[in-house]
């Protein structure tokens, strides 16, 4: 528990430093263009082989397909980082990959995107509100109490910290660092936790946490997080 918490504290400090740097850098940086981002997200760009993001992630980032996450309501910095991780860099494979390094569905989708495209799409999505009337919600009353316990207090016996410590009590996340989980599809959240646990999705902190969680722990907290508002 101490090791996990110390890493979280270190990352928080790094995030603060990055925020200060970003604020000073932003004065000279070109502001992303939400209108261009919306055009790419909605229509793609056939001439450059860019497929419309909306075909999988729904209008304005509100997905209707449980296998594809909601993107609306996420901080644009987080979305941009994920798109960069999906995108191969020259001869180097993408940072995010599937089991045994296999390419993910997102790999060819992100490959033709320029850095400017990524910033524009991410900036557009960061301005879109999550449609809570259509967003996923908790469905299992049988596991709701267990999910709440894990979210709010972790699993002390297994040295699993509270999810709310990084993702906020209401699941809104921490902009630019930790993603919004509220309203996300429970099956998608559970799948990501299992990928963290197996290290197929590389993230040292999340691996240490998920590695101590059983399938039932994961299912309970994923379902509870989906119902947060």
Can you give me a brief rundown of this structure?
By secondary structure, the chain is mostly helical.
C-alpha Rg (nearest Å): 18 Å
In CATH terms, what is the fold-level topology of the largest domain?
Answer: Cytochrome Bc1 Complex, Chain D, domain 2
Low-confidence segments = 9-27
Query: CATH class of the largest domain, anyone?
Result: Mainly Alpha
Compile the SSE list and pairings.
Elements: H1 2-26, H2 34-43, H3 54-57, H4 76-86, H5 106-110, H6 115-126, H7 141-153, H8 164-167, H9 186-198, H10 204-210, H11 215-226
What do you see in this structure?
This protein is mainly alpha-helical and 229 residues long. It has 2 domains: 31-126, Cytochrome c-like domain (Cytochrome Bc1 Complex, Chain D, domain 2, Orthogonal Bundle); 139-226, Orthogonal Bundle (Cytochrome Bc1 Complex, Chain D, domain 2). Helices cover 51% and strands 0% of the residues. The protein is built from 11 helices and no strands. It has helices spanning 2-26, 34-43, 54-57, 76-86, 106-110, 115-126, 141-153, 164-167, 186-198, 204-210, 215-226. Helix 4 runs antiparallel to helix 6 (115-126). The longest helix has 25 residues, at 2-26. It is globular and about 55 Å long. The chain starts with a helix and ends with a helix.
């Amino acid at each position: 528990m101490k090791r996990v918490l110390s890493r979280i504290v270190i990352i928080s400090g790094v995030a603060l430093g990055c925020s200060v740097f970003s604020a000073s850098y932003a004065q000279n940086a070109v502001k992303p263009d939400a209108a261009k981002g919306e055009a790419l997200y909605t229509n793609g760009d056939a001439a450059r082989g860019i497929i419309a993001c909306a075909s999988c992630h729904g209008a304005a980032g509100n997905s209707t397909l449980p296998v594809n996450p909601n993107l609306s309501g996420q901080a644009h910095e987080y979305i941009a980082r994920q798109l960069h991780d999906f995108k191969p860099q020259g001869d180097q494979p993408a940072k995010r990959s599937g089991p045994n390094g296999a390419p993910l569905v997102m790999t060819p989708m992100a490959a033709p995107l320029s850095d400017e495209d990524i910033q524009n799409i991410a900036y557009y999505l960061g301005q879109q509100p999550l449609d809570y009337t259509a967003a996923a919600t908790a469905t299992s009353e049988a596991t709701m109490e267990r999910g709440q316990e894990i979210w709010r207090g972790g699993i002390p016996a297994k040295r699993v910290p509270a999810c709310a410590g990084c993702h906020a009590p209401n699941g809104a996340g921490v902009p630019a660092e930790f993603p919004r989980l509220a309203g996300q599809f429970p099956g998608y959240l559970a799948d990501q936790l299992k990928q963290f646990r197996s290290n197929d999705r590389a993230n040292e902190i999340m691996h240490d946490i998920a590695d101590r969680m059983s399938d039932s722990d994961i299912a309970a907290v994923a379902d509870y997080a989906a119902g947060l508002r």
